[in-house]
């Protein structure tokens, strides 16, 4: 009897504490939280979904203009589903992690085809859509549908890991399982949408990665990480390892009209589906490539300024080479993955950041 009573009392105490956690976060949000971000207005599952995908590994201030342009061009899931991939990737250029845009497009088509354009009010069904993980499904369900569903984006992981002094790296399964359990435990049954936005906002503006403002945090009194005097040690960091460097040569070929020759990359792999310059492993391969693909030999080659682009798992060293051919070319063999593109039209294509940088140089200076 005593044991049962003790267990019941412990559960009540845990529930009381967890309710206080949510109440303190919500009270802070009511006074200090951001409530006028573009995706916090005219809330729909579609707008929440687009914003959540864009905000993955990307700062709010960076996302705002992209989100506004995207929903203006594609105001509904039907409009996005009907768009071609180039239009979608073109509006994504500069945000990086382009698989997000490809999955967004695929998921829109599935929502239209399988659910008549209505996002399913079920986190498991949402999570089954391309590019939507458990946390994104929880955000869509909680913010736009009022469904009690926990979330665990990077900001929330940090808040929970510090508050509970979880030292492990969130990329490890056991640490992630702990954090999901805490996220579930702290999610309230009322004001679900507000709490979801509040806990993310707290991590983004107060419990920040490098300079946490603990003096302004509504959870400071119960934060175990703060009690250690070193809250920044939580959560644990990903084990570091040196990134390898790969090398490639970009060939920048223009015709007399100033159009540039471009190729669409395969849908899989880096920059999947984006338009880029043809690549070879070194200058010695340029002339044979031009003979094979363009039917012309090269007149001259000029090396441009080398570029370096870093991905999550390697560095890419890029050597641009500007190619002048021995004869004028205007046509390309019938191939939907290769074409001459006017510089004025490149803004309508999905382009990798290094390609955008090179094209800006061409726009300003021309091919020399």
Describe this structure as you would to a colleague.
The strands form two sheets. Strands 1, 4, 5, 6 and 7 form a five-stranded mixed β-sheet that branches. The chain contains 14 helices and eight strands. Among the domains are: about 35-150, Hypothetical protein, domain 2 (Endonuclease III, domain 1), CATH 1.10.340.30; about 245-365, Nucleoside Triphosphate Pyrophosphohydrolase. Strand 6 and strand 7 form a beta hairpin. The longest helix is centred in the N-terminal third of the chain and has 31 residues, at about 1-30. With about 375 residues, the protein is an alpha+beta fold. It has helices spanning about 1-30, 45-55, 60-75, 75-80, 85-90, 100-115, 125, 135-145, 155-165, 175-185, 190-205, 225, 285-295, 355-365; strands at about 245-255, 260-265, 275, 280, 300-305, 305-310, 315-325, 340. It starts with a helix and ends with a helix. It is elongated.
């Amino acid at each position: 009897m005593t044991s049962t009573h003790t267990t019941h009392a412990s559960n009540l105490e845990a529930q009381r504490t967890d309710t206080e956690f949510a109440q303190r976060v919500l009270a802070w949000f009511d006074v200090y939280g951001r409530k006028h971000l573009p995706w916090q207005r005219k809330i729909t599952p579609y707008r929440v979904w687009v914003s959540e995908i864009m905000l993955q590994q990307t700062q709010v201030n960076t996302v705002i203009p992209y989100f506004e342009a995207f929903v203006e061009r594609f105001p509904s899931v039907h409009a996005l589903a009907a768009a071609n991939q180039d239009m979608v990737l073109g509006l994504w250029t500069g945000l990086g992690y382009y698989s997000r845009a490809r999955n967004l497009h695929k998921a829109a088509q599935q929502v239209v085809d399988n659910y008549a354009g209505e996002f399913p009010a079920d986190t498991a069904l949402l999570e089954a859509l391309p590019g939507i993980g458990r946390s994104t499904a929880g955000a869509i369900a909680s913010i736009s549908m009022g469904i009690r569903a926990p979330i665990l984006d990077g900001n929330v992981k940090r808040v929970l890991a510090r508050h509970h002094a979880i030292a492990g790296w969130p990329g490890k399964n056991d640490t992630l399982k702990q954090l999901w359990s805490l996220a579930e435990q702290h999610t309230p049954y009322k004001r679900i949408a507000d709490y979801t936005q509040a806990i993310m906002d707290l991590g983004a503006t107060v419990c920040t990665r490098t300079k946490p403002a603990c003096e302004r945090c509504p959870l400071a009194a119960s934060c175990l990480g703060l009690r250690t005097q070193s809250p920044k040690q939580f959560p644990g960091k990903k084990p570091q390892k040196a990134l390898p460097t790969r090398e490639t040569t970009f060939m920048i070929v223009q015709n007399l009209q100033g159009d540039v020759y471009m190729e669409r990359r395969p849908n899989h792999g880096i920059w999947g589906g984006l338009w880029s310059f043809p690549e070879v492993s070194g200058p010695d391969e340029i002339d044979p490539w031009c003979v094979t693909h363009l039917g012309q030999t090269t007149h001259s080659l000029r090396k441009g300024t080398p570029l370096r682009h870093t991905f999550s798992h390697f560095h890419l060293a890029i050597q641009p080479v500007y190619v002048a051919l021995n004869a004028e070319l205007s046509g390309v063999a019938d191939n939907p993955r290769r074409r001459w593109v006017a510089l004025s039209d490149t803004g309508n294509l999905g382009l990798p950041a290094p390609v955008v940088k090179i094209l800006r140089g061409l726009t300003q200076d021309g091919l020399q």
